[in-house]
Amino acid sequence: LQAARKAMANWGEDELNAALSAHPRIGEKPTGGQAHAALSRQEQSAVDSENERLAQALREGNARYEARFGRVFLIRAK
Questions:
Q1: Taking CA atoms, which of 7, 36, 47, 75 is between 20 and 30 Å from 1?
Q2: Which segments does the entry list as coiled coil (predicted)?
Q3: Which pLDDT does position 51 carry in this prediction?
Q4: Which residues contact 75 (CB under 8 A, 6 or more apart)?
């Protein structure tokens, strides 16, 4: 964690936006075979993609957050 903080200490707005935009929105299916995509698939596996009501609520919530803050909503939960 300390190494990550040190690495991003000099990031500007463009670098932060690039890092955040590479992450899928909650409820979206991550694509690609890279390690970060595999981690995202694992994180997203608890979302019930068959529940259309939940999927719609996630899409709407994601859109509201992005409209307000200008970037994708991320949360870490275990």
A1: 47
A2: none
A3: 80
A4: 26
